[in-house]
Design brief:
239 residues; alpha/beta
């Protein structure tokens, strides 16, 4: 069974969330989908026993970090997962220097991590993708290996140039890149981790993406905002 993560980003209002939950009720396997809504909406999913993650955590456990949400506060409303290192966080909030701290903090609190890695278009066109991915992995894993295992860390490969653009790598390129990620993790860190694909996953390309054997699941953005389309996507992945 492939794992699916729904990243709502900064979308939907409370009325939309209530409608969303009505549409999906009893129509999906609750162990297959991790919902990552806005922090204000997490409780609505956790109260109905869905797997829930936050879209980020603060790099500090508590304290004077105005605007952040602590991991303890997020645990209190029901998260068991968190996304760390999404390209939008890296770009707009300079998160690269905080990734390692966030990974360490999440692991110490028994929160499972969906670690996003990805390259920009220039890097991709210069065939330097794996060099960048390797650096991102090393940065996240440094000094954290004693706490990491196959159950508490998932990698999400998201080419930055694919997010929201409708453009995705070819299947052969994805197969090679994800295999390189898995091989590097195994040979360097002795980790056998699941690797998800994210970046413009939609109903038009999911059948093709399903042909990539190395993909263990998907991190889905804009399509996950529509519960009916999202259910259709899930059924395509399962069948």
């Amino acid at each position: 069974m492939k794992l699916i993560v729904a990243n709502f980003k900064m979308n939907l209002l409370i009325k939309d969330i209530h409608n969303y939950l009505e549409v999906i009720e009893q129509k999906l396997n609750k162990d297959q989908v991790i919902f990552c809504p806005n922090n204000l909406h997490i409780k609505y999913f956790s109260e109905k026993n869905y797997l829930v993650g936050s879209q980020d955590i603060s790099f500090q456990e508590y304290g004077a970090i105005t605007g952040d949400t602590s991991i303890n506060q997020l645990k209190e409303v029901g998260i068991t997962y968190t996304i760390i290192g999404h390209s939008e966080r890296r770009q707009y909030f300079l998160d690269n220097k905080y990734i390692n701290k966030k990974v360490k903090l999440a692991l110490s609190k028994q929160i499972k991590i969906i670690l996003c890695i990805g390259e920009n278009l220039k890097v991709f066109e210069e065939n330097n993708t794996f060099s960048v991915l390797k650096d991102q992995l090393d940065n996240a894993l440094k000094d954290n290996l004693n706490y990491i295992n196959e159950t508490n860390l998932i990698i999400a490969y998201e080419p930055i140039w694919s997010i929201g653009t409708g453009k995705i790598p070819t299947n052969s390129c994805l197969e090679k890149t994800i295999l390189n990620i898995k091989t590097y993790l195994k040979e360097t860190y002795n980790l056998n981790l699941k690797v998800l694909y994210g970046g413009s996953v939609n109903l038009d390309n999911i059948d093709s993406l399903q042909e990539v054997s190395e993909i263990d699941g998907y991190l889905v953005g804009s399509l996950s905002l529509d519960p009916n389309k999202f259910l259709t996507l899930i059924n395509k992945i399962n069948n």
